[in-house]
Every structure is written in C-alpha cells, then in structure tokens.
C-alpha cells in the first residue's frame, strides 16, 4: 500500500511540475503587454519600459519562471499589474470562499445521489425507478447557472425566503452566511447530484448481479443486508472516480455560479483579472486551480487503495 501511494505521489509531483511550465508558457504567449495595459495606450515608451522593469518583464524567461516558482513555493505570489496589491492574501481569501461553496455543493450532491441512486437501482424494474431515472437524466441536462437563476426566481424573488445574492463571512454573521450559501450550493449540488445519481445507480445495479451477492442472500441475508454488507463497498470504487472528477469540475465550474450569485470567490477574481488583462493574477489563479484538480486526483487514487484490497495485494 505504501509503495502504491508513493508512486501516486511521484506522479502528482511530476504532473504539477509540468503544469507550471505549461501555464507559464501560455501566459507568455498571450498577446499584449501588461505594462502598456496598466499605463494606457497614451503612455510613452519610456514609461512603459520603466514599468516593465519594475514588473520584471524585461528579464529572461527562465529567470521569470524561476522567480514565479519561488514565489509559489514561498507564498509570495507577487503584486497585481493593475492594482499593485499583493496577490497572495487576495487569492487566499477568494480561495476560501470558493472552497466553502464547492464543499457545500458536494455535500448536497452526495446526500441526494447516494440514497436516491441506491433506491433507483433496487427499484429499477418498477415505475418509481423509471420515473426517478428520467428525472435524474433531465437534471444532467440543466446547467448550473440556469439552475441558479431558477432558484433565485422561485425562492428569492417570488417567495422571498432567501437572499438572491451576496456573501457574508461566517465570522461576521453565521445566520446570513448560511442563508446566502443555500441557493448557490443547491444550484451546483443538485446538478452534480443528478450526474452522480446515474453513476450510483449503474454501480449498484452491477453489484446486484454479482454471484457473491446472490450467495450472501442464499445464506439467509435479506437483500438490504447483503447489499449493505457486501455490495456497497464494491459499488463505491467506480463512484469515487466520478466523485473526484465532479469535485474538480465543480471547483472550475463554480466560476459562472459565483457570477450569478455575486460571490467574491476565485472564479470572480479570475474573470476580473482576465477582463483587466492582469496576467500575473490570471497565471496564479489558473495554477491554483490546476494544483487543486491534481490534488483531487491524488486523493482519488489513494482512496482506490483504501477501498479495493486487490490493489494492496498487488502492491505486496
């Protein structure tokens, strides 16, 4: 088991290193001069050259790359080309907001998908199972931003139960924090839950057809007991893969939902930086998102080893 985890960790580190090169190269290849954007089109060439020197853009590319990597490792992410503010504290605050939203939405997705998917698999030959399967398929086709707009229209505009947008830190007002979190978490979580429900249903159906489950029932276990004791763990292996992919997708896809609900998260920071051509902020935010996706993949690989004893035996 330790050897498998170490190999996965080595792949994670190598992928992260390659990602830094790719992200840096893309930012360098983008057209436009950050110094010219910061000063405006009427600025003189001398002023632009001076600002390029202050930004360090006149240094050789390997030196710029090494400086950026050193900043990532030490937490000094540089200063914004547009505002002149430190990027690190700003990015940390926005990342915290996005992580709260993503984790809340994934809790909603799991709470909805796991019991509903198991129920649909057990009742797949009955009318209720067919109806629920069709509703889940319909939910897959609904984009998260559209779900957010519908939720705002119903629960904020017409019923007035919840606020339509905004963000209050939990330390300032916990009640308002929860009220403002409900709708965006539901918008992301219900859509992802519809996708996850289909995979849970498929995984449980495959398990229900296995010989070892029929053997357990032949020994006297009720269907629910056999599924609980012997089936769900095996069904969890493919579901974990989908859950990991969904977590990474939700982290990236929260950009649009944050705009819909006016949430000051990482996605809003990224879109603002793109609009202002603040390339260093864009570079740092993209790298954080890439690192988060790779970290999720690493955790999924480790969970494989925990859930599937065959991987541990193969390692031994």
Automatic annotation (TrEMBL):
Keyword 4Fe-4S included in the entry's annotation: no
Highest taxon, organism lineage: Bacteria
Keywords: Cell membrane, Membrane, Transmembrane, Transmembrane helix, Transport
Record keyword Cell membrane present: yes
Major subcellular location class: membrane
Entry's localization field: Cell membrane
Bilayer-spanning residue ranges: 9-30, 99-122, 134-161, 181-200, 235-257, 285-307
ABC transmembrane type-1 domain segment(s): 95-300
PROSITE patterns according to UniProt: ABC_TM1
InterPro entries given in the database record: BPD_transp_1_N, MetI-like, MetI-like_sf
Membrane disposition: Multi-pass membrane protein
One Pfam family it belongs to: BPD_transp_1_N
Sequence similarity: Belongs to the binding-protein-dependent transport system permease family.
Name of the protein in question: Peptide ABC transporter
Source organism: Arsenicicoccus piscis
